[in-house]
Design goal:
The structure is a single chain. The chain is 51% helix and 16% strand. It has 741 residues and is of the alpha+beta class. It has six domains: 191 residues, Hypothetical protein af1432, CATH 1.10.3210.10; 146 residues, 2-Layer Sandwich (Beta Polymerase, domain 2), CATH 3.30.460; 93 residues, Beta-grasp domain (Ubiquitin-like (UB roll)), CATH 3.10.20.30; 73 residues, no CATH class; 85 residues, no CATH class; 75 residues, 2-Layer Sandwich (Alpha-Beta Plaits), CATH 3.30.70.260. The strands form five sheets. Strands 1, 2, 3, 4, 5 and 6 form a six-stranded mixed beta sheet that branches. A hairpin with a 5-residue loop joins strand 14 and strand 15. The radius of gyration is 36 Å and the shape is flat. The two termini are 60 Å apart. 33% of the residues are buried. The chain binds manganese (II) ion (MN). Manganese (II) ion binds next to loops. The site of manganese (II) ion (MN) has 4 residues, from loops.
């Protein structure tokens, strides 16, 4: 690729070019200080060479040159010259501070920190986290601007690197730095970064586009002039105050279109694009009407991002039309406000806050906002500026690394405890220590952007302590710790309950092995209305059930079945008679009620059981039997309170059940846009019969969704729950009627 700064010039000559550019840029600078920075860098980098053989300091000058081109002020230029001395030489922060002041030293320090961030993963989510982290780490916007200038020059001189390095750096540029440049509104630099990366990532594709554009350039150029005049004339004659811009799309955007639409370049006709900028929203639609009147619109290419803005706030109306020569082209229509947001992103937002004067920006002023930003920065308190910029960015998040380089996104104020539980509950529960950036850390240590966290675990770890609930910042961490306590206590309860139960059995001349035989266990469990012995032991252990009562309940049953010889002849005869009559049990709505035919059955609304669930019936007053799950809170509570004990009775599912049962799920999730949409999309994809779906924010950055759906059985329901749990941001999915899982 063409390389703007000639690498064969010696450094002094290159520096005098830089000075020329500073003078031409019309921004007052102390050139003596700039020269001192150059000389300091040259001295410190003495003997170091770039891959092309030139002195290392030429890279520092070239980076500063890009900064000058953007219209940045003196400290930025000085810091750009010094940007690699902390990383690559013996120079220290204090050296820089003493010679050039703390502002410059802080910027260089910030750039060095960004340089040390390693890029390892190609996953899109990781790339997004890394982009956010770089922005959040740069306490001063100038740090990012210098880092981008540094990367741009490295991309310009990438030919001298090994092929492997070219690919790695180009991928990183494409995924991390070009999007950041885009976010900061640096459209021109973004385009150059993308085009240069593409050149290394797919050279054949790049060359194909370049050759075709060169062939077509004459035609395209006169075509665009023509269209621009036609649009401008028509707008003026209809009294719509507007400015029309034209451009040829940059190579990577053409490439992306070829790739996404699987075309070769001859299939991409709309290489040119026009922008019509108007005064207000109604003029956007008026202008659109005029353009559709002048040229034939291409069906399906009209997009209204004014009524539905893109997630980053972008607004415009897009349409593709066919010109008089039969060549299609895209037109984007927007107001000046929308244009500012589109071009300057975060900075435009900041500018509004600081009382923007509605200046109109054109392409020639692409970088003027940076200048204004920095002028404003000198006037206001630096702290306020940083604070304000941080609010716009990610002040409520912190981004840290695993030792293997994955970025983990945590709420601001998070501690190693949050980190451990964010990796996995198992890691948190087994944590015995943490290291932050290689140093042993306390659990209350507040994590900073870019920290590398290492969690030490041990199989014999005692588990979380109660204090951790105070030290954890994220509510999902606290939920996980609470779950551990609940479960852990359950284990203790089971042990205690088992001892009590065994003692009571002994008093009655029974043994545990007698009632846990393969034949007996199902009968015992059914009689006691629990789904496992552990459930029974846990209930006895925490006092929700007494061992005396439990043993009483099963005593007779055991006597009857274990010692059948004690049955009377009459018993046996009546049993035989029953068996012979072969009367089928009658299923009512798929439920068999023990000892009762034809009774009215309804499914409780509190826990909405479905076939496959362990169920129990409750004899209501005058309303038949209502069916609950055995883990339904209402049932469990009543059992604990030992209230209405006599009205509970055993029920079971019939072999043949109804087609569909209505049941309710509650989803707890991190608050984010698109969440309810994702739930709806997933349920739809599962062919779930959804009867209602609603969501609301519950504060603490969380929302809940309520889903009423119809399923055939528990298996189908569990499959849907598993799918829902996999949706991004979902903390837990539980069935109605049950407290925490
Ligand atoms: Mn550098």
């Amino acid at each position: 690729m063409e390389t703007p700064i000639c690498i064969n010039w010696d450094a002094d000559k290159l520096f005098s070019e830089l000075v020329k550019h500073i003078l031409a840029g019309n921004i007052a600078m102390d050139l003596g200080r700039v020269r001192a920075a150059y000389e300091f860098a040259a001295e410190r980098h003495e003997g170091q060479k770039r891959k092309d053989g030139s002195a290392y300091v030429t890279h520092c000058i070239a980076t500063a040159d890009i900064i000058v081109e953007q219209g940045l002020e003196e400290d930025s230029v000085v810091a750009a010259l010094l940007h690699d001395v902390l990383e690559d030489t013996e120079a220290t922060y204090d050296d820089i501070k003493k010679l050039f002041g703390s502002s410059v030293a802080d910027i260089v320090d910030g750039v060095t920190k960004l340089t040390r961030v390693q890029y390892t993963s190609h996953e899109e989510e990781q790339a997004e986290n890394l982009r956010k982290m770089l922005l959040a780490m740069a306490k001063d916007i100038r740090v990012i601007l210098i880092k981008i200038a540094d990367r741009l020059h490295n991309m310009r001189t990438m030919d001298y690197q090994t092929e492997e390095k070219q690919l790695i750096k180009s991928a990183e540029t494409m995924e991390i730095y070009a999007p950041i440049a885009h976010r900061l509104g640096m459209q021109k630099i973004k385009w150059e970064l993308e085009d240069r990366s593409l050149y290394y990532l797919d050279r054949m594709g790049y060359n194909e586009i370049m050759d075709t554009l060169a062939d077509k350039m004459d035609v395209l150029s006169s075509f665009m002039t023509n269209i621009e005049e036609q649009i401008q004339t028509r707008m003026t004659s209809e009294n719509i105050s507007s400015t029309v811009y034209r451009r040829i799309k940059h190579i990577y955007s053409i490439y992306r279109k070829m790739y996404s639409q699987q075309l070769n370049i001859s299939g991409i006709f709309d290489l040119c694009a026009f922008r019509v900028i108007v005064e207000n929203i109604s003029d956007c639609y008026n202008a659109l009407g005029l353009i559709h009147d002048m040229y034939k619109p291409v069906p399906g290419r009209f997009k209204d991002y004014i009524s539905t803005p893109k997630p980053n706030g972008y607004q415009s109306v897009h349409t593709t039309v066919i010109g008089t020569e039969g060549i299609p082209f895209e037109v984007q229509i927007r107001t000046w406000d929308m244009h500012q947001t589109a071009e300057y992103g975060v900075a435009a937002h900041w500018k509004y806050k600081s009382g923007g004067d509605g200046l109109r920006y054109g392409d020639e002023e692409k970088f003027a906002w940076v200048r204004r930003l920095l002028e404003a920065q000198q006037e206001t308190e630096a702290q306020d500026f940083v604070k304000e910029l941080k609010i716009d960015m990610f002040s409520d998040e912190v981004f840290v690394f695993t030792p293997s380089g994955d970025v983990i996104n945590l709420p601001a104020g998070a501690t190693p405890i949050d980190f451990a539980y964010a990796i996995h509950s198992g890691v948190g529960n087994k944590m015995v220590g943490a290291k932050v950036n290689g140093k042993i850390s306390t659990y209350d240590h507040v994590l900073k952007n870019g920290d590398i966290i290492e969690i030490r675990t041990s199989k014999s770890a005692a588990g979380p302590s109660r204090d951790w609930l105070q030290l954890a910042k994220s509510s999902s961490t606290r939920t996980k710790i609470k779950q551990w306590f609940k479960k852990e206590k359950r284990d203790e309860n089971i042990i205690r309950g088992k001892d009590m139960f065994e003692d009571e059995l002994k008093k009655n001349g029974l043994s545990l092995s007698e009632i846990t035989s393969e034949a007996m266990l199902p009968i015992v469990l059914k009689k006691l209305a629990v789904s496992s012995l552990d459930d029974l032991f846990a209930a006895i252990g925490y006092g929700g059930q007494t061992s005396v009562r439990s043993v009483n309940k099963i005593k007779d049953e055991i006597a009857r079945l274990v010692k059948p010889e004690k049955k009377t002849i009459l018993d046996k005869i009546s049993e035989q008679a029953e068996r012979r009559s072969g009367k089928p049990e009658k299923a009512v709505q798929g439920i068999l009620v023990e000892g009762l035919d034809n009774c009215l059955v309804k499914f409780s609304k509190c826990c909405t059981p479905v076939p496959g669930d362990e169920v129990i019936g409750f004899i209501t007053r005058g309303n038949g039997v209502s069916i609950h799950r055995t883990d339904c809170m209402n049932y469990v509570k009543q059992r604990i309170a030992d209230a209405d004990g006599g009205r509970w009775l055993s029920v079971s599912w019939a072999k043949v059940t109804n087609d569909y049962y209505s049941t309710t799920l509650r989803i707890l999730a991190k608050e984010r846009s698109g969440f309810i949409m994702d739930v709806a999309t997933l349920l739809n994809a599962q062919n779930a019969k959804v009867r209602s779906l609603s969501a609301r924010d519950i504060g603490n950055n969380q929302s809940t969704a309520n889903v009423v759906l119809e399923v055939k059985n528990r298996e189908e329901l569990l499959a849907i729950i598993r799918k829902l749990e996999a949706i991004r941001g979902v903390i837990e999915v539980r069935r109605a009627g049950v407290s925490e899982r």
